[in-house]
Design brief:
- By secondary structure, the chain is of the alpha+beta class.
- The chain has 26 helices and 25 strands.
- The strands form 9 sheets. It has a 5-stranded mixed β-sheet, with helices on both faces.
- The longest helix has 19 residues.
């Protein structure tokens, strides 16, 4: 025990001292250093391919080398759009003296967390257990077999050198104690997300949701929207749940909070006022200063959220946000040939964070001339928009009509002038050096964008949205689907790699269901069913009724994780539970419904305490505790019925439809001689069919 204490003190001393794109291989001779990452396709890994550090990708070669040389591992994890990952690379990993120290004492592994979220989960859990915090870059130290014993996030160069020397010394002088501590920490990682099966009856009640929301409301910022703290992340599943709940429970205060949040984000610096699309988060409480990287997963989910926000509040700003964001994604993050969406845009350009997006007052004056004063008022230049080094982050604050009146402009004149200003700004900005693009494509993130497109098409009816959705769905269903029906995770330059994770299956199934409900093409519903069956085969844990993150076919890590807490991306288990619920109704599959209910029952005791971390689960509970309807459209008017119905925000309605006869359970015997009917059903009991949308809406209480 005394030796353990000495080791822990040594590790504590370390912590105290330290504080909390592809190169052409034919041109390798131009670089002084080239490591094993040169064989990878990940833009993030390739950024490090010419570091003097002898980096290896995660894999058997590196682990075997560590065992043979009896050296500890450095497992350094990040992603291409991560600003502080770039900083640490420039400060430490490009420094030959630092690299010499790393190469001498360690086997060094670089991991793209987006390609290998399974590896990231394990070592993030370890670092959070050690330091009570996490983030990227993530730097973990582990024994040759992968058991972590120390780690942290970003280290300045001098602190990183100190860490390297101290860890190397401890590894040589206290090996037994490090092995024992690594065992303890590994046990903590294994047990950190252990879920026991709840064998008690589910008994879901609205009271659970009421308590969840009541506690959550204490953290609402009802002035600026979002939480009452910084940084502020969009967290789309949070606001989708709150919007959903406010509608079903009749809670106008919660509805108002969601509306304020959507408005403030859309008008703030976190939203690209000129080019469309959202940055990853705001560093302040005003949604003013973004961390400028743009991620596909955020923008796909936010397209869905703002589409539903438009249904609920009919604010034309939300429709504009959807249109601009889809335009941005198509313009800057889309491969039209394959139909794939790229992963991310960097925060930095020319080595400076946000340089592509910000404006000086003089730039704007020179460019806009007589229109500068209007732009100054509209975008708060020199006022709220003023950032650092005399630069402005364009953002909006006052209502358009108030600004128009100040400049004695009609609504039409005002709109024309703002459009002209924005076009000139966009054209000028396009001449700048652009942020780096992470051009790998991930199945899971593509599915989030696909769902956003399907939701947007269903509500707004823009054919472009559907065309993009169908092209992307074809990419996933062909290129990213293996011959045996399982999924790949990553794609770049025509090559697929890495066996799919649960996120690939659950998000894709959700997207296919949304695409079915937007088109009534049954092929997508059947594909959702097929990949869900594959998920059950390869990921399902029969002992507790949950799903592992990794496939049974994958090489094991030190822990096989089960993801249950929602974050910027929904937890894979909450997503899978929703898929099973929806498919269970569409296909009248009782097994799916029972699995979904068991999954929710397993987590319901945690929900009221940690509402924002269980918001996607909350959507599923909404479906189960409030009246839930199946609405079926038949006959020649099925499509027009769907279009009219989709103008209303009806979060507890699942829809199906067909012009012709169908074998789907919800449609059997309901399509008769092409007659157009609407059936509103609940728990397999239907009211009398009607022929008008308003009459059907009246049947939904």
């Amino acid at each position: 025990m005394k030796k353990h204490f000495i080791l822990l003190m040594a590790i504590a001393q370390i912590a105290a001292a330290c504080g909390s794109v592809q190169e052409n291989k034919n041109n390798m001779t131009e670089h002084q250093y080239t490591n094993a990452l040169i064989e990878e396709s990940s833009p993030y890994l390739l950024q490090h391919a010419h570091n003097p550090v002898n980096w290896y990708p995660w894999g058997e070669e590196a682990l075997q080398k560590a065992k043979e040389e009896d050296k500890p591992l450095i497992i350094s994890i990040g992603y291409s759009a991560c600003h502080w990952c770039h900083v640490m690379e420039h400060e430490s990993f490009e420094d030959t003296a630092v690299a010499k120290l790393m190469n001498q004492h360690f086997i060094c592994i670089k991991v793209d967390r987006e390609e290998r979220p399974d590896v990231d989960q394990v070592y993030m859990d370890a670092v959070q257990l050690l330091t009570k915090q996490g983030g990227w870059p993530l730097n973990a130290f582990a024994t040759p077999d992968g058991r972590p014993f120390y780690g942290g996030t970003y280290f300045p160069k001098d602190k990183w050198i100190d860490v390297l020397e101290r860890v190397a010394g401890q590894y040589k002088s206290n090996r037994k104690q490090i092995d024992e501590f690594a065992d303890q920490l590994t046990a903590g990682v294994v047990g950190s997300d252990k879920i026991e099966i709840n064998t008690k009856p589910s008994n879901f009640h609205q009271e659970t949701l009421d308590v969840l929301v009541d506690r959550w409301e204490d953290d609402f910022d009802n002035g600026e929207g979002g939480p009452d703290r910084s940084p502020k992340f969009p967290l789309p599943n949070n606001y989708e749940f709150l919007l959903h709940f406010s509608q079903l429970a009749g809670d106008q205060d919660v509805a108002k909070h969601v509306d304020i949040t959507l408005q403030k984000m859309a008008l703030g610096g976190i939203y690209d006022q000129i080019g469309g699309g959202f940055a990853r988060y705001s560093v302040d409480e005003l949604w003013k200063v973004p961390h400028f990287e743009k991620m596909l997963y955020d923008n796909g989910q936010l397209v869905s959220l703002y589409t539903k926000g438009y249904q609920a509040f009919k604010n034309p700003l939300y429709k504009k946000v959807v249109d601009q964001t889809i335009d941005f994604v198509e313009r800057e993050m889309y491969d039209a040939e394959s139909g794939a969406f790229y992963s991310a845009l960097d925060a930095d350009s020319e080595g400076e964070e946000g340089k592509f997006y910000v404006w000086s007052k003089k730039e704007l004056q020179d460019l806009l001339g007589n229109d500068f004063e209007l732009a100054k008022s509209y975008y708060n230049i020199g006022g709220k928009a003023l950032w650092e080094h005399g630069n402005n982050i364009l953002l909006r604050q006052e209502p358009n009509d108030k600004i128009a009146a100040r400049f004695d402009l009609s609504e039409e004149e005002f709109d024309q002038k703002i459009e002209s200003i924005n076009q000139r700004l966009f054209q000028q900005r396009s001449k700048r050096i652009r942020p780096g693009l992470d051009d790998k494509s991930l199945t899971s993130w593509n599915a989030l964008m696909l769902k956003g497109l399907a939701d947007a098409y269903r509500v707004f009816g823009d054919q472009k949205y559907l065309d993009l959705a169908l092209k992307n769905a074809e990419f996933i269903s062909s290129t990213m689907t293996q011959k045996n029906g399982t999924l790949w995770h990553s794609y770049k330059n025509g090559e697929v790699k890495i066996n799919g994770y649960l996120e690939d299956y659950s998000f894709t199934a959700e997207a296919y269901i949304a695409l079915y409900e937007a088109t009534f093409d049954e092929a997508w519903l059947r594909q959702a069913n097929r990949i869900s069956e594959q998920a059950i085969i390869h990921f399902y844990n029969k002992e507790n009724g949950m799903f592992y993150f990794t496939s049974s076919e994958d090489d094991p890590l030190i822990a096989r994780k089960t993801e249950i807490m929602d974050n910027v991306i929904p937890a894979t288990n909450s997503s899978m539970a929703k898929v099973l619920y929806q498919l269970g109704i569409h296909l009248e599959d009782q097994r799916y419904l029972e699995m979904s209910e068991q999954m929710l029952n397993n987590v319901q005791m945690m929900m009221s305490k940690y509402g924002s971390s269980f918001s996607n689960w909350g959507i599923l509970m909404n479906w189960m505790v409030f009246p839930h309807y199946e609405v079926v459209f038949t006959g020649e008017k099925a499509g027009s019925y769907r279009e009219a119905f989709s103008q209303h925000y009806l979060p507890n309605c699942l829809i199906a439809g067909s012009k012709t006869s169908s074998e789907l359970p919800l449609l059997q015997h309901r399509v008769v001689d092409g007659a157009s009917k609407i059936y509103v059903c609940q728990n397999k009991a239907c009211q009398l069919p009607v022929e008008e949308v308003e009459a059907a809406l009246a049947q939904i209480q």
